Amino acid sequence: MSPLQTLFPNIDWAEILQACFDTLLMLGGSLLFTLALGLPLGIWLFLTARGQLHAKPKLYGVLSLVVNVLRSIPFIILMILLIPVTKAVTGVSIGIRGAIVPLVIGAAPFFARLVETALREVDRGVIEASQAMGATTKQIVARVLLPEARPGLVAATTVTAVALVGYTAMGGIVGAGGLGALAYQYGYNGYKPDYMLVTVALLVVLVQLLQMLGDWLVARYSRK
Question: Range of 97's domain?
């Protein structure tokens, strides 16, 4: 018997391994779509704000309202509300595929707001100099804003990834699978504290690894 089996005799480690894999699948898939949707939304929030390149206060107000509303809904409630949408898009309402849609809808507005904040940190003089040289808005976004805001965007991605880890754990309560499902099914409902301890420890390790990677990338791009 291995030391882990001796210390935690009630745990099925193959099940733990599968739950880790499921959590990583949910995290990777949802983070990819969150970046794909949240980045352009954050750019539009920045561009349409008052005093920016394409200032459209009314459009900005609508976008900002949508972002704020989606950010204000607790994720567990959002998952339940989106069950019909999730089923229509993916064909299922539970499991890994069923979790992706609410994870993205919950995290994309959060990431978009962080993107907007990061872009606001770019030196206004650099933007004005690019305009003076005849650069189009598309060129300014691609060659000035995004490169200059890279450390902030990496930090935003890290914060969003960490938030998604927490979302995947909450998703386990409504059948999304992963470590959160094990913690709820065995640790809470099954009165097996060893399951709760191990799943929480693994989630903490995952968050720590994501944060360390993000901090390293921010430091690297900041030096440039």
Answer: 12-223
